[in-house]
Amino acid sequence: MSEKEFGPRDNDKRLLQENMELRRKLQESEEILEAIRMGTVDALTIQGPDGPQIYTIKGADHTYRILIEEMNEGALTLNQAGVILYSNSHFATLINLPLEKVIGGSFYTFLQPEDHTRFQYLFSQGWNKNSKGDFFFRTDHGDLLPFLLSINALPGSDPPALGMIVTDLSAEKEILAVKTQVELQTQIISRKEEELLNEKQTKEEAQRFRIVLEGIPQIAWTSTPDGLINYANLFWHQYTGLSEQETKGNAWLQALYPPDVEGTLAYFNACLQTGEQINFESRFKRASDGMYRWHVIKASPVRNLAGEIILWVGTCTDIHDQKEYTEKLALAKQNLVELNDQLTEKNEQLIRTNNDLDTFIYTASHDLKAPVVNIEGLIKNLERKLEREKVLKENDQLLIEMIYHSILRFKATIQDLAEIVKIQKTFKEDAAIVSIEEIIADVKESIGEMLIQTNAKIILDVARVPQLHISRNNLKSIMYNLISNAVKYRSKERVPEIIICTEKVDQFVCMTIQDNGLGMELPDKDKIFLMFKRLHDHVEGTGVGLYIVKKIIDNMGGKIEVESQVGKGSIFKIYFNTAQNLD
Length: 583
Description:
Blueprint: H1 8-38, E1 43-48, E2 51-56, H2 62-70, E3 74-78, E4 84-87, H3 89-94, H4 116-126, E5 131-138, E6 144-153, E7 162-168, H5 170-213, E8 219-223, E9 229-232, H6 234-240, H7 258-274, E10 278-285, E11 292-303, E12 309-318, H8 320-388, H9 394-426, E13 432-435, H10 436-446, H11 448-454, E14 457-461, E15 467-470, H12 472-488, E16 497-505, E17 508-515, H13 545-555, E18 559-565, E19 569-577
Parallel strand pairs: 14-16
Antiparallel strand pairs: 1-2, 3-4, 3-7, 5-6, 6-7, 8-9, 8-12, 10-11, 11-12, 13-15, 16-17, 17-19, 18-19
Helix pairs in contact: 8-9, 9-13, 10-12, 12-13
């Protein structure tokens, strides 16, 4: 019969029957699901590509099923294709789906497509061992929720099945986020507390230093760790004329000499970076006269218990006068060096001149001896010839005697010149320990005839300093000249008496030679030591003896003094340098 043979009534009847069949099947499905949940059935048949498959739930008693239902995690059973055989109601709640839309569906539908491969690996591992992994599920509303999957094979299941526990990580992640936020807030609070503590320590240190710095008579200041001035004492304000506002921060730089600003800042910044002490020189303007004066700037960092710099404390000391003095001293030293070089050159010239003079004197004294001796011999021959011929008259004899006298003086002068040259040469001779008494004995022997003729007495008192460290020839020359002069310039009214004594005076050995001779008028004492200077013309002499004495003493680093009174005598005091002598 064709379709056209059915009437409207037949169509309505057929649709009614199909609707009733669907209702029956739906009711049957709901009963099966409820039976599985309540444990009243132990098997389930699912139509697969190879025909129907039967899954049993063995060993799952009623109490166990109730426990699964009451869990706070989702509980699932999957077959080898990933189809959900069983799900507790908590999993359905987690993903916001009715339970009937969960059971019998593929687990892959709840995963992100990019997670399928990773889940497949985890799923395959679960058949052999317990495997776990984090995944995001997409709910019916499209939300992504984090879950931890724990998969393990269910032993004894036929066909094989996997058990899966699904743990919601949303709350855990929220707790972790809250914990992280709390830790972050704790760190912020700790840092704030540390900052407040450092600030308190800084204020306390600054206040303590300010009390001290106000009392010192020089510029003093403090700054923040980054070098900004936060305090300057009263001395600074009085010296620079700047107010507190004109000083704080970097405003103080206006008191610096402009060309010094760049270098000062560069040095300060370097010290701020390294924490090294500041020690630098710059010029500050003094308000009273507008003068830029040199100061040495010194500062040290103050650190807290953690070793962090919390404050810089510094001073500025006026060194302008000292610096000027140092510069003048350096200039004076330079001038002194130049002057010393000039003196060295002059001294070298003088040495050359003296050497030339010594050479000349030596040559002259040596070369003149022979002519003088020849003249003396010729005069003697002339005198004898005139006597033989008996033509020598009285006036001629007087003339010859005058010639003899001149020759003797000439010879004495030559001898004195030779003695001067000798002094220059013997000065470099090695000194030795010399007995004063022995030298006096040698001098007595040299002028023995003169002492006998005048009955002169020599009294020695040298027990306190009996020896000198000196050239023997030099000491003999000194004593010879002074003793012979004392005898030559004796008074006719009394017997000559010469007293010689020694003593220690400060750093010198003082030798005193005192006589009772004629004495001298001494308007200028130093002139008697000049070469060829004579104060008494009635006595034979060349005026070289005292010159020789002073020359020797000067060369030794000593000195000679003289006191004299006409008619009473003279006193010579010789001071030998003890650095070159022995007690």
